[in-house]
Design brief:
The chain is mostly beta strands. Helix content is 0%, strand content 44%. Strands 3, 5, 6, 8, 9 and 10 form a 6-stranded antiparallel β-sheet that branches. Strands 13, 15, 17, 18, 19 and 21 form a 6-stranded antiparallel β-sheet that branches. The chain is elongated.
Amino acid sequence: CGGDGSTCNVTIDLQNIDVFSGTMDIYMSNAEPVSYYHLNFSGIEITDVSGIDLSDDITFESSHIFSGLIWDGLIEDGASPLFTVHFNYLGGDICITDASFATSIVDPLFYPVDGIGCYDPGPVVQLEIQNVDLVAGSLDIYVNTLVNDVYGVQFYIDGIFIEDISGDLNGDYGGYDDHINYVSFTEAIPSGKLGTVYFSQYANSGFCIIADDYQWPCGAWDLNADYINTLCDECYQFTAGCTDDTACNYNTDATDEDGSCLYNDCDDECGGIAVVDECGVCGGSGTSCIGCTDL
């Protein structure tokens, strides 16, 4: 390393950060083999590491990862993912607060690593569609938030015509066909169900929560009306049709019941209306079994 670490050129990078699944990938680019490294983090609580043959050579604490001799004693030069870190998100930026590495196995000297700093964790609020019922024309909107200062959400649902809403969503609902604007300035919105949306029309393939076409983007806001990074690209994809396998028009490809099921009548006509009358005749008028009773 030129005696002072100036020529080692080791860089650590965080990629694929997902605070909802609690995972991120650690990448390292090194100009020569590395034998040991230390990494310290803030903004997360480390729960596990995975993705390589860890054996007993990597240890971790809540904010610290230390490697012993791995890969036969050296990490070869190049650029590659080291491992995946599993964590609980604590809030704010995710930072590498300290990092160092060594290139020798015997009496290693540790040198600084490029890449120390903070990384944007990405979206910390997520809007989700759940419990879709095409027959009833309803769906539930859930919010998953990893922060405690969500005081408002706004979004559009592309692919449905909204008729009504219930639950907390009706706070500031303006009656638009696909627009929901819910704001509460009295208390923060917790994770969980926001409300139910009732609709009369829907696209055949699905519908999505998207950014709106009006003044504001899809997302969440804090008490000061400052935008909070929000994951809005939530889609519910389906194939509508009859899901009752006893129906004559049962659709093996259907994923969601749409109320279209038909059944064979007594004349074996799919969707027919013929019924057996009181005389036991299919489609009869009920008079064929009435005999003469005059004396």
